[in-house]
Description:
- With about 425 residues, the protein is mainly alpha-helical.
- The protein is built from 17 helices and no strands.
- Helix 11 runs antiparallel to helix 13.
- About 55% of the residues are buried.
Amino acid sequence: MRKNLLPVASLLLGTLFLFLGNGLQGLLLPVRGTAEGYPTTILGLIGTSWAAGFVLGCFLAPNVVKRIGHVRAFSVFTSLIAIVALMTGILIDPTWWLILRALTGFSTAGTSMIIESWLNERATNESRGVIFSLYIAITLFGVVGGQMMIPFGDTSTSIFFMICGILYCVAMLPTLLSKAASPQPLKQVQLDLRGLYSNSPVSFLGILLVGIANGAFGTLGAVFGRQAGLSDSTVAAMMSVAIFAGAVMQLPAGRLSDRIDRRYVLAALAGVGALAGLLIFLVEPSQVWIVLTLIAIYGAAANALYPIAVSHANDFATAEDFVKVSGGLLLLYGIGTIIGPTIGGPVMTATGPYGLFMITACAHILITAYAIIRSRMRAPVPIAERDAFSPINAGTATTPESLQLSPRAAPFDEAHDANDGDTDPEQEDKSNGRV
Length: 435
């Protein structure tokens, strides 16, 4: 274990600080925006702006890295995120926040892809499973840790914006001081929607709907909490418990899906998520413990859907296509997270804060219905021929580059043989050949 982790320890440390900043800023903006009286529609569009920037970054960041190299690109992207974090604390204005949040999303995609490519370079076929699991865990704990800073300060001041800037600057240091060799050029991301649908209609529609539900809740959950009268500390606990419940539920739900038709598990989980959402929408609970309990049930069901849908799609794909299929689905999920906050804001404006869960419930009901319908139209892959379930966290800004680390991807020697041979500028410069 020590031998596997030492080469990537500094990269993982930088990742932790990066996602601490992401978690803090992601919760701070809707909380502060609600306190400033920004319309719910605008707060939803701020989430849409980040998601759109992130998806765009997945497509364009490889070109930036190819042009100026990994070290310089990482410095540029991280510096931009830190600058934006500080500017959002200075420019308390929704129009500026919309613009700046898109830049943050774009730059976050760039930094994540670079870190993930560095981890790929340092991992071996024997160690990448450990590194992949640890990377996913660090992104999870980073986001939750950042969110849980909120109760320890005053969101009406600029202090948290400054803390975000500090966290992003600290995230830059371990990676820049690392002796890990500059990795190979990033692979250009492609999105084949027709191919994804042909491979698995349930996964295609299901992941799009999961993205809509999770995008709406992830962006507007804090707005719901504040408008429902919850304190900042309770809002932070609510958002964190949803993430943790989903992380805990992934393994038992995934193991169950290894034994029965995954579409039945998708239908059941989506049904539970829909029921929890409908209860919150219809009952409008005011007691904190009831809200947190229902949110935990909702989070456990909603956040376990994505990896099972990916596993179902990969049951019908070859091992060589794992990265292509899973990466395409991750981008499709990103498209859903653009749609969710866009429609969630106006719905909450029209129906009140609890209307957020009407959006999530509708998405989950559609998943349940479609999964059941498709289970009658196409036989499942025999259990003996399926890949074993592997947890994948779609909620913490990972990119298709991270999928190279999954044990289910093709061996590294095959992936390296397929490299197009492009030269990284840093590898041409002997003085920058080590980072």
